[in-house]
Amino acid sequence: MSTRTVASVLGFTIIANTCVNMITDFHDGANDLYGPYPRIPDKEKLKKQLEEAAEMKKFYVSPSQTKANFALMKF
Length: 75
Hints:
Layout lengths: L2 H23 L17 H17 L7 H7 L2
């Protein structure tokens, strides 16, 4: 692949990304390519998701808290 082809593809990608950012982020997100989505989530939906996350924390332990990783970390 030639340098000119790579530069053309990169330039097109940057221009397309700039256009998408202008359309979606300006005017406080009033114009959105992906449809209307509220910037502030619904309180009930957020509360439900936080409860589910707290419930999952009971079952899943982060890798840094497992004994196997502590054994591997000792040199």
